[in-house]
Amino acid sequence: MASTQFDRAADYLDLDQSVRERCKWPKRLITVTVPVQRDNGDTEVFFGYRVQHHLSRGPVKGGLRFHPNVSIGEVAALAMWMNWKCALMGLPYGGGKGGIACDPRSMSTRELENMTRRFTTEMLPFIGPETDVMAPDMGTNAQTMAWITDVYSTHAGHLVPSIVTGKPVELLGSEGRTQATGHGVAFTISRAFYKLGIEDTKATAIIQGFGNVGAHAAYTLARYGVTITGISDITGAIWNPKGIDINQLTEHVAKTHGVKDFPGADAIDPEEMLTQPCDALVPAALEQVIHADNAGKLQCRVLAEAANGPTTPEADTILEERGDIFLIPDVLCNAGGVTVSYFEWVQNLQHYQWSEQEVLSKLETMLEKAFENVMHFAETNQMSHRVAALALGVHEVAKVKATRGLFP
């Protein structure tokens, strides 16, 4: 998917062959084994990955995920998308991504800590504040980042908070980082509504995924006045055409660990929920949930890609032919997380902390600029929003590659 999308953007830009090849392929693909002694005394070996797509514009930036389906191909694709995302947002980063193939829900805190610390130790030759800066992703959180910080700082002999972002605030993390991605998703949806002449207070939204991103997107949309009619997660899907109370749902999820059986809504088939009428459909979980079989059935006005790669190339073709859905591509829609990660990194380098209001205000300013750039480029060149966003990002990377030249 990532390569297909890149090729479309590169074809439009008519990139020189040498620059095109250098932009496409990652700089480093790192695979390590991570042995962990389980609580029952057995030793289990996990496989860990880190892909650094480019270092031409600065250190690579990207999350670390713990999930059973993590593979080197998935991580490489996510690193590529992160590269274009950082360039689109004007951040001085290349794209990175990492992961360990494991099921974190079946592991104790001690096992997760030992696995994280061993993985970090294996990565020490390849990471650093000016080389590779990790962040939380699926299955990881601020505590994971704290363990990575401790390992790296112990080896350095002093605290190095800029080695990761998404840390706890007491460990010099940034205010506003936890809600940054979801807040950015909601903000771009509101901008799309404005373009379409839809009032926030009269709009409805369906959110697939109620993790960190989906939950904060739902909370911010509700604060804007948008009615959330459907929400799903790994436990099931719920539906209430009159609106779901996000605060009550959050309390329910904290107690039951899922949206299933929430008393304020009815159960609905998760696949059926995606094709219900709404103003904004927000896939905020896994990749490839919008595909050839359901793209033609969508009844949303705005498709906001809060997850990475939620729409397959086949579905993209269908949506482009339909022409009635306003797409906010993932490299723009969910860029709030990496943007505030950049703010955290800058704060760490400056040894100065910003307030939450400062952080979210700066985030909205940068998202507004990127949003308008994508819309203007798409309208001027009569192309889809996805190709426009990717072309802008790829063009920035290609310019730097051409300017720096090829080291023999």
From TrEMBL:
Residue positions of the active site: K97
Similarity field: Belongs to the Glu/Leu/Phe/Val dehydrogenases family.
Protein name: Glutamate dehydrogenase
Pfam family membership, one: ELFV_dehydrog_N
Record flagged with keyword Nucleotide-binding: yes
Alphabetized PROSITE patterns for the sequence: GLFV_DEHYDROGENASE (PS00074)
Residues that bind NAD(+): T181, N212
Glutamate/phenylalanine/leucine/valine/L-tryptophan dehydrogenase C-terminal domain location: 174-405
Sorted UniProt keywords: NAD, Nucleotide-binding, Oxidoreductase
UniProt site (Important for catalysis): D137
Residue ranges of coiled coil: none
A GO biological process held by the record: L-glutamate catabolic process
Organism expressing this protein natively: Oceaniferula flava
InterPro entries: Aminoacid_DH-like_N_sf, Glu/Leu/Phe/Val/Trp_DH, Glu/Leu/Phe/Val/Trp_DH_C, Glu/Leu/Phe/Val/Trp_DH_dimer, Glu/Leu/Phe/Val_DH_AS, Glu_DH, NAD(P)-bd_dom_sf, NAD_bind_Glu_DH
GO-annotated molecular function: glutamate dehydrogenase (NAD+) activity; nucleotide binding
Protein residues bound to substrate: K61, K85, S341
